[in-house]
Amino acid sequence: MNPTAGDVVEEAAWALGGGVLTFALFPFALPALVLTVAFVLPFALAGLAIVLVLSMVAAPIRLVRRLRSAMDRVPSGSHPTHETRS
């Protein structure tokens, strides 16, 4: 099925219209991106600060749990004491 000349002209008109529209709106693209970043950046920094605080709280808790778990796995007779050293 070959396209007719009218179909080709109609498709070319849509492509030309899209190109003109893109060219006309291009100057607004960079300011829109900058404004989007400026709007989102405070929220991203606030989220990063919250994650940092939570990780500072969680790190000692996880360390204590890991050490306690490691101490539970070691048999009680294998701990060196001061009395057995010479």
In short:
This protein is mostly helical and 86 residues long. It has one helix at residues 5-73.
Spell out the key features of this protein.
86 residues; mainly alpha
Secondary-structure blueprint:
Elements: H1 5-73
Largest sheet: none
The number of helical runs is 1
Q: What is the terminal separation in angstroms?
A: 98 Å
Order of helices and strands: H
Unreliable sequence segments:
none
Average of pLDDT: 85
How does the overall form come out from the CA principal axes? elongated
Strand content: under 5%
Description of the molecule:
This protein has 86 residues and is mainly alpha-helical. Helix content is 80%, strand content 0%. The chain has one helix and no strands. It has one helix at residues 5-73. The longest helix is centred in the middle third of the chain and has 69 residues, at 5-73. The mean pLDDT is 85.
